[in-house]
Amino acid sequence: MTTQELVDQIEKKKSFLCVGLDVDLEKIPAHLLEAEDPIFEFNKAIIDATHDLAVAYKPNIAFFETYGVKGWESLKKTIDYLNDNYPDIFTIADAKRGDIGNTATRYAKAFFEDLAFDSITVAPYMGSDSVEPFLEFEDKHAILLALTSNKGAFDFQTNEIDGEALYKKVLKTSSTYQNNDRLMYVVGATKAEYFTEIRKIIPESFLLVPGVGAQGGDLHAVCKNGMNDQVGLLINSSRGIIYAGNGTDFASKAREKALALQQDMQVILEAR
Amino acid sequence: MTTQELVDQIEKKKSFLCVGLDVDLEKIPAHLLEAEDPIFEFNKAIIDATHDLAVAYKPNIAFFETYGVKGWESLKKTIDYLNDNYPDIFTIADAKRGDIGNTATRYAKAFFEDLAFDSITVAPYMGSDSVEPFLEFEDKHAILLALTSNKGAFDFQTNEIDGEALYKKVLKTSSTYQNNDRLMYVVGATKAEYFTEIRKIIPESFLLVPGVGAQGGDLHAVCKNGMNDQVGLLINSSRGIIYAGNGTDFASKAREKALALQQDMQVILEAR
């Protein structure tokens, strides 16, 4: 998917919501456990109930991988279901992969070709030749970790490197990579005050923003500081939506939560 | 596996060789492509031919993941084969995972429980709460990326952060993590001169060293600067061993290359 197609979808749906699929067998409604593939059935119901409110879905790969071959099958079914039924939706493999050249190309092929995701989250530590292989695929995107919303982000990301925070160095250095127009960035919403600084370095790029809701980030503060001419934001909510209910009506409960977020986003978009 | 069991195996085999399984369908001998699972058949033959010379095997997860569900099945068969037939051998999932709390625990369960690896490579960018979940598993190890052997390592790892190179900050900070005695580190062999500095920070830890051979690192220089009382090194070779031959005798060709490395290691161990 091109960035312009993503922007068009945002304007059409009046939403920049991404729904995170962090599906845990211990948390999904009990009646689904009788299905042959409970994880896929859960995802399918959530997607069907929210597809007109969300512009992106983000399966968290760890939650599939933890179930081995069976989990990988559930992942394949989930992404195929999205691509077959809702081809306009932007798909994100939240995999946080990061390895060099040859190996990075293998990961890129796994997620861009075998699974046909539009994008994948990527870790920056190994530098250019661990990121650029993901940027060689037309209409595909690497979403690079910049500033995350967890406690450990302060271990390295905010420390000064060559006179500025490491996450800023990551933004600047990666902006020189080949095909950097296919880069997006992960920026945690718990640090809304950082968005102004970040926009000075990467005014054009889309930002994937976790941490609104469950992790305490404020949607309005993020939008005020982080939005650009093309919106430029994908706000992710995972648990707050998918585990809104735990009964047979879990999908409609999820829709309620997604709708509330979409309506907030519509107000923000219309006030531009 | 405990660190002591790894050390015992090193002393017994007079080897600290790790064989990297980066198995590419385009590179394996043509006759294997007729097998039901060519990747597993290739791995099985390489393992059988080298198990007395190597103390560790390191499947590169990208090379399995790129084949989707089928690749994940080959990975499962490979690790099961190792654990069933050579339980004394140390196994490394070269996955370079890195995500926060809950998600990291899922990755840890995928590799330590479902697949029963002894260890996994982990990326440090997200800090403590992305690494510590991997350290909660008894007799399991997280091998943290410190200084890698690729060009992109100079993008961030060697830059000064708080007055010292980022990779040194990673070594120091991670040494304060809970259960840090279960940490090992990836240190590339192309930078043998760094090993002296690294040993000042982490004298006790095992180092997984890629880059000997194909990437140009020098075994003797690495050992001189990096070895400790418990040896403390696992030297990885992937392509140099597994693609030594391309005919029906590929496994014996691989053995020849592994034997040459093991004999070099034996000389170094006996000269201590």
TrEMBL record, chains A, B:
Q: Which GO terms describe its biological process?
A: 'de novo' pyrimidine nucleobase biosynthetic process; 'de novo' UMP biosynthetic process
Q: Keywords assigned by UniProt?
A: Decarboxylase, Lyase, Pyrimidine biosynthesis
Residues forming the catalytic site = K96 (proton donor)
Residue intervals of the Orotidine 5'-phosphate decarboxylase domain: 16-254
Give the Enzyme Commission number.
Answer: 4.1.1.23
Q: Which domain of life is it from?
A: Bacteria
Question: Would the keyword Lyase be found if you checked this record's keyword annotation?
Answer: yes
Q: Which GO terms describe its molecular function?
A: orotidine-5'-phosphate decarboxylase activity
InterPro entries linked: Aldolase_TIM, OMPdecase_type-2, OMPdeCOase_dom, RibuloseP-bd_barrel
Q: Which PANTHER family match?
A: OROTIDINE 5'-PHOSPHATE DECARBOXYLASE (PTHR43375:SF1)
Q: Which family does it belong to?
A: Belongs to the OMP decarboxylase family. Type 2 subfamily.
Check the record and name the HAMAP family matching this protein.
OMPdecase_type2
* Descriptive protein name: Orotidine 5'-phosphate decarboxylase
Q: Which organism is it from?
A: Spongiivirga citrea
